Amino acid sequence: MTESHRQAVQCSESRRDPAPAGRILGVETSCDETACAVVDAGRHVVANVVASQIDIHQRYGGVVPELASRAHIEAVNTVIAGALARAGLAPAEIAAVAVTHEPGLIGSLLVGLMAAKTLAWVWGKPLVGVNHIAAHAYAASLDAEPLDYPAIALVASGGHTALYRCAGPTEIALIGKTIDDAAGEAFDKIAQLLELGYPGGPAIDKAARDGDPHAVRFPRPLLKGQSLDFSFSGIKTAVLYHVRGVPGSEPQRTLADLSRRQICDIAASFQQAVVDTLRIKIRRAVEQTGARTIILGGGVAANSALRTAIDAFGHERNLAVRIPPMAYCTDNAAMIAGLAWHDLQAGRTDALSLAATATVRH
After folding, report:
1. Would you state the pLDDT for residue 360?
2. pLDDT tens digits, residue range 70-126?
3. DSSP H or E run through 158
4. C-alpha 63 chain-centroid distance
5. What tens digit of pLDDT does each residue of 278-288 get?
6. How far is the C-alpha of 48 from the C-alpha of 210, rounded, in Å?
7. What's the CA gap between 143 and 337, in Å, rounded?
């Protein structure tokens, strides 16, 4: 977040309610989950409510932005009320309102941003804008011990795949990113190709358990030199050609030509290619930065093969590996409220003019 956005909320002191300094209410609507949470002292989750849109987007095999925005509008008030009820707190007991304002789908971001601004204004509370990616890099500290810095964080989801050098909760710097597709997007597309269901990450993970990860050798892109960038479009194409055949050649195939075992082998081999790529890039990042902690965040961090591989690498190198519980891997508001506490402690808040930004600003 730029310093120009970091300024006091335009509320008079007479309207400001006294509240414990630690309880932050967070709102998250960056993509296809409407979420609200209350977190105390940056780490202790008091309430965490998420309304998923999987049923809405399932028939399309991916998130439809217009439908996502409408669903957020319908759910946001109920989710906020639910989080406050579960926490058993009144507005006077909330210290600040935090909200995702970047990056994400612009229509979705605006719904959460306007809801949070309204609460901040009505309650007379500070507003804290939070970067969604930085929050994923912080999620492993929720309901857990504080993270040990310096660290490197891999944030991998349907919309993002990037590596960050982290000097602290709010001090992160980009060191590698995808040049095309995100890892989570590749999981969704391959699951759709193999007709395994949506969302693709859990579907591939499940099918891979019955397959051989070495059955098919799919490419591991961008491994030459010491690059920390990623590319997943080539893996998607390789899987497509393996399933259907190379365009213009014979014979052309359909999924019906494959047995269930062959489909599971393809899922496992694809997953292994992605996991190998992510592990190699994490290893390079550790060697280049001297980090003593590895953090995983984002929906892809829920993948069982990735969690196992990074745990093994951390043990091998005597590094701490911090992976959030499943509930905090996917989009949630607890990570938003938790990270906002650190901004509030440093006196960084935002004006009610805070804008939503769809793309990542590095």
Report:
1. 62
2. 999 999 999 999 999 999 999 999 999 999 999 999 999 999 999 999 999 999 999
3. none
4. 15
5. 999 999 999 99
6. 34
7. 13
Cα separation, 325 vs 319, in Å, equals 19
How many other CB atoms are found less than 10 A from the CB of residue 346?
Answer: 11
Distance CA 263, CA 242 (A): 11
Map out the domains of the chain with their CATH numbers: 3-140+330-345 (3.30.420.40), 149-323 (3.30.420.40)
- Distance spanning both ends of the chain, measured CA to CA: 9
Please tell me whether residue 255 adopts helix, strand or coil conformation: helix
Q: Are strands 171-177 and 33-40 parallel, antiparallel or unpaired?
A: unpaired
Can you tell me whether residue 79 is helix, strand or coil? helix
Instruction: Output the CA torsion 190→194→199→204 (10° steps).
Output: -80
Q: Are strands 96-102 and 151-156 parallel, antiparallel or unpaired?
A: unpaired
Q: 9: closest CA among 80, 98, 92?
A: 98
**pLDDT, tens digit, for every residue of 40-80?**
999 999 999 999 998 899 888 889 999 999 999 999 999 99
DSSP 260-277: HHHHHHHHHHHHHHHHHH
User: Helix, strand, or coil here: 130?
Assistant: strand
Tell me the HSE value of 108 on the side-chain side, using a 13 A CA sphere: 26
In angstroms, the CA 26 to CA 355 distance is 17
Question: Can you name the residues that pair with 35 across neighbouring β-strands?
Answer: 28, 50
With CA atoms as reference, report the closest residue to 157 among 314, 33, 17. 33
User: In this structure, what token pair is assigned to residue 208?
Assistant: 């891979």
What separation in angstroms does the CA of 155 have from each of 166, 185, 234, 290?
Answer: 12, 13, 20, 19
- Determine the Cα–Cα distance for residues 260 and 238; give it in Å rounded to an integer: 19
